[in-house]
Write a structure and sequence with these properties.
The protein is mainly α and 431 residues long. The chain has a single domain (6-208, 220-427), classed as MFS general substrate transporter like domains (Growth Hormone, Chain: A, Up-down Bundle), CATH 1.20.1250. The chain has helices spanning 6-38, 57-86, 89-106, 115-138, 140-143, 149-177, 183-206, 221-237, 240-270, 275-303, 305-325, 329-357, 364-392, 399-427, and strands at residues 48-50, 53-55. It has a two-stranded antiparallel sheet. A hairpin with a 2-residue loop joins strand 1 (48-50) and strand 2. Helix 8 packs across helix 13. The longest helix is centred in the N-terminal third of the chain and has 33 residues, at 6-38. The radius of gyration is 21 Å and the shape is globular. The two termini are 18 Å apart.
């Protein structure tokens, strides 16, 4: 196949520009800062009440987000199968886009009297973001030839980092213009939703309509999604390199995604950073992530995807071990830069490696659904493990103890990557 036109590629990448503002502005900066302010011990001295129990505020956020990811994992195979069968991939992508964007905007009404509303909006924004990613990712092998997938994948992440930093700067400007008030943070939630929907229109206009699957559903619509995953799993089991790569991806994703989701919470709770410093930290992460995504794409041409991933996971282990001991702001900024470097690279490289190892198929939605379910289940385990360790060791280390479980996940992922490299050499597969 040939890579699609520049217009289609840029249109595809623009969705990263549109929705990455959720990942940076909501998940990793403004929401954690505002949530910490609203749910502080000043407002809730006995912990945040939720479902009849009082929780450590950050642990509760981890639990809610983990539950959201579990819902995504359960919905993903059903929806991707429906989209693949009915040829309506773009429509489902649009639905989740709008769900996520509107949830972000409704966060404007989140305050100490509406904590449940804030947490639910946070969860549904995540469902919208990651639900739409299933369909977004599945377009990659349809619009890019195998030799171009690393480059195109990295382009999407680069667009996302640039777009999210621009929106971040808008929010930063509001914080400086209206200091000592929660209003700038709330206005930013509203603007994120508008940004997401507005720029997504470029993507929806540029992407081609998907063809209906040539295969007919053998079961009802709800069951068919999981049936499709069974079909995909049977194919994956017969491909040792792909199977072992997915196992490695599952293990190190428990660490990668959890770090991305709790990094700012760590700065707030352990180092007591101010909002402006948190925003600066997030901008550092995103700017360096652009270099990481592009740089690792180029390194993969010379050294191969698996070798680059092995080196990246080693760096992640170093990040987590360093985080356990840090006590100063400057150490946190250095660590944030390192997180950004490896964050962009490992996400882009993982997605393109999977696309390269996939068999030739028209059923890209189901294959990427399997990939996304693997990632989301990893996030559920990572977040829940992090949250429960913090919850039960709140007065004896708390978040620092939680970081150590991430080291375990990364080490296991690293061992599986070495095994994948062995299988790759044995099968003489070039990546």
């Amino acid at each position: 196949m040939q890579t699609a036109s520049k217009k289609v590629i840029n249109g595809w990448a623009m969705y990263d520009w549109a929705n990455s503002v959720y990942n940076l502005v909501i998940t990793t900066t403004f929401f954690p800062a505002y949530y910490a302010f609203v749910t502080s011990t000043k407002n809730f001295p006995d912990g945040v009440p939720f479902l009849g129990r009082h929780f450590v505020n950050t642990a509760l956020k981890d639990y809610v987000l983990a539950f959201g990811f579990l819902l995504i994992a359960l919905l993903s195979p059903i929806l991707s199968s429906m989209a693949d069968y009915r040829g309506s991939k773009k429509n489902f992508m649009r639905f989740f886009c709008y769900m996520g964007a509107l949830s972000c905007s409704i966060m404007f009404f989140f305050d100490k009297d509406n904590v449940t509303l804030g947490l639910l909006c946070f969860m549904f924004a995540g469902i919208g973001f990651y639900g739409s990613q299933v369909f977004y990712n599945s377009y990659l092998p349809e619009i890019a030839a195998e030799q171009d997938r690393d480059r195109v994948s990295a382009k999407g992440y680069s667009f996302g980092y640039v777009g999210s930093v621009l929106m971040q700067l808008v929010g930063f400007g509001l914080v400086l213009a209206i200091p000592d008030s929660p209003l700038p943070l709330k206005l930013t939630f509203l603007l994120v939703g508008v940004w997401w929907i507005a720029f997504a229109q470029i993507t929806f206009k540029a992407l081609p309509e998907s063809n209906k699957s040539e295969r007919k559903a053998r079961k009802n619509v709800l069951a068919n999604g999981f049936h499709e995953l069974q079909i995909v799993w049977k194919q994956i089991k017969a491909m040792p390199v792909l199977r072992n790569f997915l196992a490695a991806f599952f293990l190190y994703s428990m660490g990668v995604q959890t770090v991305m989701l709790i990094a700012i919470d760590f700065g707030i709770k352990i180092l007591h950073l101010e909002d402006t410093k948190l925003i600066i930290t997030a901008v550092i992460i995103q700017l360096v992530a652009i270099i990481g995504a592009i740089g690792m794409s180029r390194l993969s041409v010379r050294y191969g995807n698996i070798r680059v991933l092995i080196a990246t996971v080693v760096l992640w282990i170093g990040v987590c071990l360093t985080a356990y001991f840090i006590t100063t702001e400057i150490h946190f900024y250095i660590l944030a830069a390192l997180v950004g470097l490896v964050m962009g690279g490992i996400q882009s490289m993982s997605r393109s490696t999977y696309a390269k190892l996939m068999p030739e198929t028209k059923d890209t939605a189901s294959f990427f659904s399997f990939y996304d379910v693997t990632e989301k289940l990893a996030i559920v385990i990572g977040l829940f493990s992090f949250g429960i360790i913090e919850d039960f060791t709140e007065h004896h280390g708390g978040m620092r103890n939680s970081v150590l479980i991430l080291v375990v996940f990364f080490v296991l992922g690293l061992l599986m990557l070495f095994y994948t490299a062995h299988k790759q050499r044995k099968a003489q597969i070039r990546l």
